[in-house]
Amino acid sequence: MIPEIPPQLLSALADAPLAALMLWMMHLLRRDLQSRPESPPPPSTAPGPSRDELVDFKLEVARTYVPLSLIRDLDSRLSLQLLRIEEKLDEVSRTATTATAIAGQNVPARKMGFGARADAEDGR
Fold first, then answer.
1. Do 113 and 85 form a contact (C-beta atoms < 8 A)?
2. What share of the chain is helix, strand, coil (3-state, %, to 5)?
3. How far apart are CA 81 and CA 87, in angstroms?
4. How far is CA 73 from CA 80, 81, 83, 105, 116, in A?
5. What is the value of pTM for the model shown?
């Protein structure tokens, strides 16, 4: 008669060879990586433009070839998205304040958003 074996033990026994194989593969990969010589750093005198020259070129392209209307459109879209995020954060703050008030905890008054930041910078 076959003994009663718990399903968790059967599952662990079935996964053991796979786990051992993965550990062996990790051991081989680690040993292979340690045996490789380190590659030399890329030469600093590579032909072509440097990183600073590329950044300057990108700025020049953005200033010269991007129409001002597209920049304004992007600015307005970003501003609207930031306002939506601020409204959501304010709503979450109000909800949290209401929840703590219902729970009977003392909640200090606080301001959030760009207005609070401007007040803090002005020293108000």
1. no
2. 70, 0, 30
3. 10
4. 11, 12, 15, 45, 27
5. 0.36
% of the chain at pLDDT higher than 70: 77
Q: Which tokens in the block code for residue 120?
A: 């803090």
* Short-list 78, 88, 81, CA closest to 113: 88
pLDDT in tens, 24-76: 999 999 999 888 887 766 655 656 778 888 889 888 887 888 888 888 898 89
- Distance (Å, whole) CA 101 – CA 81: 30
Q: Are 113 and 94 in contact (CB under 8 A)?
A: no
